[in-house]
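Hi support team,

I'm opening this ticket because the web form for multi-chain structure prediction keeps timing out on my end. I have pasted the exact lines I submitted so you can reproduce it. The total is 430 residues across two entries, so I didn't expect it to be a heavy job. Is there a limit I'm missing, or should I split the entries? Thanks in advance, R.K.
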Amino acid sequence: MATETAGHAAEGGRFPPFDQIATTGVSQVFWLIVTFAVLYVAVAFVFLPKIRKAMEDRDGAIKSDVAKAAALSAKADESVKQFEAQIAAARANARDTASKAKAEADAKTAAETAKVEAELNARLASAEARISDTRAKAMTNVAAVAEDAAAAITERLTGVKPAAASVKKAVASVMGS
Amino acid sequence: MMVSTDPMHQFKIGKLFDLNIAGYDVSFTTSALWMVIGVLLLIGVLALATSKMATVPGRMQSLGEIWYGFIAGIVKDVNHAPGKPFIPLVFSLFSFIFIANIIGMFPYFFTTTSHIAVTGFMAIFTISLVVVVGLIKKGFGFFKIFVPSGVPVVLLFIVTPIEIISFLSRPISLGMRLFANMLGGHVALKVFAGFVPSLAVALGGLGMLMGGLLVMPLIVGVTALEFLVAFLQAYVFAMLTCVYLNDALGEAH
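Hello R.K., no limit was hit. The queue was backed up. Here is the completed structure from your submission:
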């Protein structure tokens, strides 16, 4: 019993965390301070700044990429707007050209129509003039034939040859012209 | 190596070589050896994690960033902006305790955090830091934490001593919690594990069967629990460090 207790005392007793404080407490705290100080210095001055920098760099890269994307998107929108404006201008231009061409064509058609109509009218007028001329000529011929016929009929019926002037007068009164 | 069935044997500190500085016995012991191994492991992992820093992180870099983000998250949640200078300290405390606890989970490895000398000194260091930082930041106003605002003057005679006692008990509870958890868990594991040979010796084949079927699953379960405790105690220590630091950094409450 006595040897067992002595043995335990030599090894640090029954409950080392308390029994060994007197013999190893200073050593434990000393090595704790040394090792923890080494860890703290390495962590605070080497490793954490590196990790923090990597994370900040990533944040920065993401932010700048997003900004770049936004700028490109704005540029694309601008291009689309420009393109649309160009299309609208081109469309207006085309409409203008088309309406101008149509107006020109209309004018040309109207002019041609007027010219043709005028020509036709002129020909119509000349044809009418010719007809009336012909008719007048034909009428004078009819009067001469009627006078001749009237003079011959009168001579055959009466035996007297009528005077040319009176025949002419009589025919004219009958014909009413 | 002779396997001892004594559950306390694992906590004995052996001397590896003598060292004396200014008359103090600071011999290199098994405890010191495992602290050195723990710190070397941490530095090795951190060196691997930070060897190739890329915008798109690799596995080790992700580990380092999650590790850092975890601690920075605690400090940010509890202390907000003024806590930023203390992130390396909380990171080191958490890592040191965590690696010590995890090393302790391996048979024949020594658990440095199972000794009150280590955990108690850490706790005293933390509370001293709180007092020093508080005095630097707030001067004499730091002691307002003992005098809660909005309490009637008569009650202050009761409340202030309670506040002082609760403040002074912090290093004790902080150090004791970690030490007791690590010690108790390892003792429980050892005792349960000791059941298996004990049963085998006492009951022969039947005892072996009982030990194998009933006790072994229990040991496996407790071992898993101890891994959780190893992490949890490191987390609790880091968390409480932040909470106590808030007395020095935060608004008076």
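A quick check on our side: DSSP finds six helices and four strands in chain B. Let us know if the file doesn't open in your viewer.
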